[in-house]
Fold each of these.
Amino acid sequence: MISTKPQKKKPDDARAWSLVMPYFRENRWLIAMGLVCLILADSGQLYIPRIIKLAVDDLTALRADFRSLGGYALSITVAALFIALFRYGWRRCLIGTSRLIEEKLRDRFFTHIQALSASYFSKISVGDLMAHATNDITSVRMATGMGMVALMDAVFLGTTTILFMIWINGRLTIFALLPMPLIVITARMFSRLMHSRYRNVQAAFSDLTEGVRERFAGIRVVKAYTWETESEQKVERLSKAYVKRNIDLIRVTGSFFPLMITLSNISLVLVIYFGGRQTVFGDISTGDLVAFISYLGLLTWPMMALGWMTNLIQRGKASLERLAEVMNEMPEISDSGKNDLEFSGSESLRLNDVSFSYTKEGGRAVLSEISLTMNSGGLIGLVGPPGSGKTTLLSLLPRLYDPSKGALVLGGRDIRDIGLSRLRGMISFCPQEPFLFEGSVRDNILMGKTDATDFQVAEAVKKACLYNDVMAFRDGFDTLVGERGVILSGGQKQRVALARAFIHNRDIMVFDDPVSQVDTRTGAAIIKVLTELAKTKKVIISSHRLSVLETAAEILVLDQGRIVERGSHDDLMALGGYYARTSRLQDMEADVHAV
């Protein structure tokens, strides 16, 4: 199945190529040196037919001897060594430069992806991004490396070869070049077909990558529901679609190269016929004819290089356009604030009539007119049915999203005036679905906090009620958790995420359903820690387990993005609304389980 994602506006050629032009300028001297080496290597190739001409003429005139033939052989050997030396030089400079461009472009692409807002990742697949970062960038590397070589060979070697052929015999050169207009017309016609089909191939590769990635990531669900057959069929359909797109492309490229060779061989037929006649009639020498055919052989490569260059350039161009589509995406969350602002930690954080919608125009409001004040020394709780907007509200605090209306104000400053790194450096964020990276337990807790001591790590783990679990592992804190924390249970992963928040110990602590995957006893111990934190920090907790929020200074009850109840636990119980009904129901369930 080919992707049905909406097509983005295709960048123009100049904008696409502008992605790599800075790297050409940066490495211009290395590229220039490589081109000089390529020209010298090509010049050595042009010299060899001249030697062959002299040797054949001497042999034809019966004036050759061992000494002269040895001299010709030595000259060809020296020319071959000359060619080999400078061929190494151009490969080192030009192909090496293409590798540097590949590295720089991949780093730039990854940096740009990390800078994009969270909303961008809800409308593009991981497989698509992986295809950009691997297949597309490899195609650009080939276009900037061997594509440049093929272009230079087509221009320099082709032009100089024709000049040498004219020097031998202008009339014979005209016959040899008769197929050339057909080659130019064919190359232009085929290049357009190649470009569109390369884009189709890359899009199909993105879909295949995403399909395989998704099934590997969900392999446990696939096995649990014996969905292997359907999963195989899905990947098979994607694979067949990818193969079909490649076959469509190969029909073009597979016809193009043989056609180039056929047209060049037509030149050879004409040269042998008309050149043979001129040799018989004495218009040119036998050595001239052999040299001319040798030059025609050299001309075959530039004509093939023209086809190969067209192939590489069109593939690279298609990939650059796909990369440009992503690189032209601008973050919705602007980072125009200041990162040198000072905060004491005692400033209040206010939400002033905040509204939010995930779609910019005409979308349903997920949050409507939310007002809230958070001070140090008070715990704020969020309650509400699923889909009421709790997670979205928490996501506004570190500016994963910006409100559609209203403002978040920290210490009298709109948080949009605070640099992202400064703002997020004041917030410990524990999401509803904890994500663990491949690595050790310690690495997943530290998350870049390299100055933390082993004692601090152990204390954070103890606060998260995970210490005994970690000590039970054979390698303790150095235990590798596997991709997405595969060796850990859901509760253990959640507590690793809690330990991560505790060790960073920032002024604003945000927890989204922090005890949803642990038992009641462990949850109570964690809540005790969170309550202690709330005495000195701004702590906000969203939870479906209402007993977690009994000590909160204020609890907000959300429904369809609006605050429908607010107050302390006692206030809300007396109100008799959603909070009171849910709390009594959970108490009854707890009593039943206790029995």
Amino acid sequence: MSQAFYRKWRPRTFDEVVGQNHVTQTLRNALKSGRIVHAYLLSGPRGTGKTSTARILAKAVNCLAEAEDKPCSACAMCHAIDEGRAIDLIEIDAASHTSVEDIRALRDKIGFAPSEARYKFYIIDEVHMLSKSAFNALLKTLEEPPPHAILVLATTEPHKIPPTVLSRCQRFDFRPIPLKDMLTRLQGIAAQEGLEVHAGALDLIARQSTGSMRDAESLLDQLSSFGGQEITLEQVQTMLGTVSSQAVKDLVDDLAACDVASGLGRLGRTIADGADPQQLNKELLEYLRSLLLIKTTSLGPSYITPEQLAEMVEQAKKFDLDRLVTAIKLFSQAASDLKSTTQPQLPMELAFVEATLPRESDTASQHRAISATESKPSTSPSEETTVTIGEPAGASSVAPSSADDTPRPKVMQESPASLGTEGNDPPLTRLQDNWTDILASIKRRNMHVEAIIRDCPPTTMDGEVISLTAASPFHKEKLEDDKAKRLVEDVISETMGHLCRIKCILPREGRKRRAPSQNDDLQAIADDYMIKAGLELGGKIGDVQLAGPSPHEQPARSFHTDHRAVPADGHDKE
């Protein structure tokens, strides 16, 4: 039976440990100076060499060679440790030995002297999995260890280890392995295994492993079985379910152009051709991150060619920084949504569409543009130019006077005498007639705000101030949020053709009541058809109270329809 690559090519000396020079150099110096301590904590991501380094340290402290640079990997003790038959090297998997009894057994045995080696060496892997009681039992051993024992604790989650344990260990933090070092190591393994691996394939293997050398070696081992002695980029893409870099680039081009139809179509075709949605999202995120680095630091990824870098520089110019950051956040959220959705490509499609929608900065620019239009002195009839909403491209417009090329809203400019009017319709009537269109426009920009304002119809309009009657205090609170309020004001301003402000009131706000009066027009009240029906049933008109009209309906008669008949006993009957 052949041995897996990650076991066959496990580091056996400090020189073979990849990308952790800050750890290996410190341990080497400690060995030369004789400053070996009784407890070490090795923490870091998976596959970065924690357990391998612990075994190399066990070899070094027990090496029988006289050479100063240890381990020699040639003496009997080094061979015994490499072959897994050294009885004084004890490895414990804390994930399956979590109880206090397991640690008590360790504490009882650690006091015995080593059988063959100089030191009895304990490696406790995934030590963060120990229970609280087990940590307390281990603490005593760490406080007063026997002189012949060394303990190495390895973990991927050091934040779960009690501070009392951390403070008694010398800690080393392992880092994700750099791409360049990983490529060098993979090339060496491929050469010794007689594999012909294309450069692009090795690059994709290294990037897919996200800093884990063990993952990269396992993937190379799997590909050697899949493709034989020659491993191509296409084979790696087929096994991983990835797509070509050109497909990702084209998708980013659609995003830059805000071409939703082309982008969604390309997404669907790519996934239908066999691409894994999670892998595609991962590659898209990595590409967008590279554009962000190019835009902010002018430095591109080290693994791309100069030609690819030139293309990415041109792409980065098509995005402003705010929009690029927003897109990265959206696709990052899609990455977590992909793990739980029943529609594999839906989170990516939603992220793509939302990344093409107008941003808050655009809305703020439109808001400022409307304010500037409102404060601009009126021009003479000969100089006045009108731009209607929805005017087709190529129609007459006024060129912006500033160098700022931020898109401006298409707003109808009117003279002060005609502001708020269209024909003979009063402003409130115009607003109510266009309310459905206003809601639709708000929904396109923010569905949550539209859901709130749908229950907050306009009831009065005083100049540029529009009163919206909220259905509840909850609606009022949400609509008074700065972002929601600004969005509603911008859409209403675009529709009305001049700057508008909104304020939210509750149904009972502004109602006035007055005491009963004998001068009320009881006859007018009695003529109401509802009152007539009540009188025919034997009711009597008693007190009369005045209440404001419902915010959701308008009076239907010449007198106030909200006068109510109160029975003689003085109690309302509803």
Amino acid sequence: MKWSEALIPTLKEDPQDAEVISHKLMVRGGFIRKLASGSYSYLPLGFRVLSKVKAIIREELDSRGCQEVLLPAVHPPEIWKKTGRYDLLGAVLIKFKDRSGKECVLGPTHEEIITDLIANNIRSYRELPQTFYQIQTKFRDEPRPRFGVMRTSEFIMKDAYSFDCDIEGLNKTYKKMYEAYCAIFERCGLPFIPVEADPGMMGGNVSHEFMVPAVAGEDRIVVCAKCKYAASTEVAKTDGIGGRAKNQKEKTLPIAEVETPGITTIEKVAELLKTEQIKLVKTLLYKADDKTVAVLLRGDFEANETKVKNYLKCAVLELADAATIERVTGAPVGFSGPVKLKDVRIIADNSVKDMANFITGANKKDAHVINVNIGRDFETKEFVDIRMITPDDGCPACGKAIEIKQAIEIGHTFKLGTKYTEVLGANYLDKDGKENPIIMGCYGIGVNRIMASLIETSNDKDGIIWPLSIAPYSVIVIALNIASEVVKKMADDAYRKLLKAGYDVLYDDRDISAGVKFKDADLIGIPVKVVIGERNAKLGMIEAKDRKTAKVDLIKSEDLTSHIKSILK
């Protein structure tokens, strides 16, 4: 492709609304343009990258016997209501009415749709196992679109669904898909880490996320360098009290109320009472479906709402609002505590179990209580792991030191079991003629996120550094002075030779300064630059530069294709 004939609108400055490097470079490099909040157009360069990512996905899945389908984007709400996810997803679902007034849903995912399809088309064990996938645009009413194409209302996703007769079959399929994911992400040049994860609203009991460590990541993962344990912080188990401080045995002291006028935070209460945060117990009030629950944690720890939700087995978990807190405790937000808390279920993190003489809210405005002790001042028998892991905790697997990293989720796999097939009637007849629910798995990849994640992890001060596998072009031919006859002739010849040899080639034939051409080439990140200047052209020589290593070779024009082959091998 000749640059003079292409739409590659590069920019010198970062867009004002861009927060992360991938968003900045994708806009500056002419890969994307914003239409509205959470909605982007992919320009030719961006589309070429997406196409190469999709090609890799298809090659790896097709080679493992997966079959590609295309499912409807517009769904009837009734099928979502059958599984309960119509209410569970709530405002995330984008809904509209057609001309007849019938409600429709834009699909954020397709578990219900593929299961309904299988329910109506597979009846016998002889037709199983089967795995299907699609690459399609999905929709969700994202409350806070950000980071360019990483969090959008409209996104491209590869979702796959497997159907087996039994758990043994699912385990084999899951392993196959897990290996396919590793191959896909390796080929895309991503430094990924598979981690144990929470299935969330998808359901099932086994789940893995494929994460790319990056500063821009909105997720957090736990990694152990010793035993290679890796998990999402949502599911990583803790050792109870953590490494920062140990609960000490103390003589029980008399409970007492102290005034804390206007002081509502753990930090400020500890400061006022001249103590450490580890001597406080925070009381968080949640609405678990339709019931209020009090969650107790040591003052320096954070609640892990995924663990809380899973322990309570509730469909919806959210912090209680101010009105509920005042109704339940008799005090405004910031003064809640377990002492004299009536008709509320109390669950406590393991970190609280052996604490003595701790400080809590007094359920009274502008007051806290000191020297609180479990058993004497309030009761709870429920001690569970419901806090976030910290860098001071030991590895859940081997006890050694851990590291907590920010990461971007690029893929997620689930063992769903019969969550959808039982509800939607996807059954099969076994060898004995008995009807059984089909066992299901689900596997997703964020296609847009692969593109953004690669840029987050592969860039320098000048721009993007693409791997050959998903680069929009393999080689860029730069004619430094296109007005020079000798330069144009050699550049034209180099362009033709490389195309004939089967390379994706971008030919910068613009009549602009060499400086701008070099800056643009580095910005868009093509793996190899072939530079043709007048002095070298007169000597029959061409300069080849590797974008990643910055290594420059001066070669004879007749050796161009063989040299490019050696660089890109």
Amino acid sequence: MDTLKANVLKKAIESGSNKLFNNKDKIDALNVFPVPDGDTGSNMASTLQKAFKEIENQNYKKVKDLIENLSKNMFLSARGNSGVILSQIFKGFSNAWNKLESLSPKDIVRGFELAYKTAYESVLKPVEGTILTIIRETYEELSKLKITSNTTINKIFDVVVKAANKSLKNTPNLLPILKEVGVVDSGGNGLVLIFEGMKSALEDKFIQIDTESTKPFSTVNNVEVYSGEFGYCTELIIKINNLEKFSKNKFVSQLEKIGDSMVVVNDKEILKLHIHTVTPGKVLNIGQKIGEFLTVKIENMTEQANHTKSNVIDNHNTNKPEIMKKNAIISCNSGNGFIKIMKELECDYIIEGGQSNNPSAQDIIEAIDNVNAENTLILPNNSNIILAAQQASKIRSNKNIHIIPTKNQVEGITAIMNYSSELDMENNLKEIEQSLKNLIVGEITQSIKDTKIDGIKIKKDSYLMIMQHKIIDTKKDLMSAAKTLIDKMIKSKKRPELLVIYYGNNISQLETEELENYVLNKYDVEVQIQNGDQYIYDLIFGLE
């Protein structure tokens, strides 16, 4: 094959998208941080697959029309940093091929050149050892190729796949954290899979979606809510009566017969259970046999899902204001507690999403359009949403948009609390920036694997202490980890005044009050308790 026509390129991209989708869970598992929030594969797969669905029923005779429409839709569907960078790679392809009906080998090489340059330009501080390195080094290998009249498209993609794999294997040598943890770059791996899937299609080995080995995307969108029978999310905290006779294996085996999505953790005589079941009464009966209930929480997940749907509607005014507002604030939040807090602080529009469920650029664009303001402040509240927010602001370049690079929900709360409608935007931005400098954030979550980061050995199921986005230590039990982290936070700050404790959906009020008493008895610091109802992080602390 000496030229690549639009219909063949479209089939190749679909094959690449399918291969990425089939392996998205494996890419998610490459997450460096040992917490259950790896979403690189899901973000990349969602970005490409949703964009492709917009064009899959279109017949294209010219490459320029195909790649332009695909690139435009990827720009809108981009999720997370990896999805945004992937969309920029395809934007580079589109810029290179914007006048072409079909592609020659030289055209493809030119496409890779603009792809890497566009991707690098989209990131403020490019980091080597990432997806950026993969696309750049792939082009560099292609540029060495002496293209003649005998050079085929298949030969070009042979070089692409070989070079991309070579670059991927070298990423740990460029990014020390990858070498320390023992993984390759997850975003780079996703890009390699796309190229491999495209190559397969060009060799008449089209990759189909493997529906049996992969789970669909788990995000809740703005128009659909599953109405089938979810059952009940049942959470118990039990004080075990006879610890010597208690068999955790026997307890688990009984529950496995009546539910799934089960998590059982016990620390001495205290046992915590999370399970999804259609018969919560049977779970209570089994639990009561081993001890006394300290807390019981049963939620109908069908109702919960529909409540989430209503939250999406209630979190913002769905009627666009006829008169343009002076200022408006948009915030990305997850956990009903955090969402409630932001609503009480009069946030104009809440995009429900965050860690492990990143909103797309399109979601943010819809929010910008909805608030209809002269000045719009966006609080991403997650480092993986900042690029999507920047992408959205480029599309709405006719509006005055300010992105506050908040990396967690506590920073978002601090930002909105230091905003005043009486100040002009310049002074508001200064006040918010200063308030964030005075804030220390700590987080507690459980490790999902054995690993080593920054010299700290981490065991699976141990509790990670994270301060200012960095793991500082681990402990075997939650309360020890929480108290140690609080100590370190308070000692690191001159004249601390207020500690706010946000507890997640797996923590009881009693445990949180124990931490409050610990701080009040040891330090001259005011303590507030808030129910964040967040996932992933059991406890989040904000110290001012």
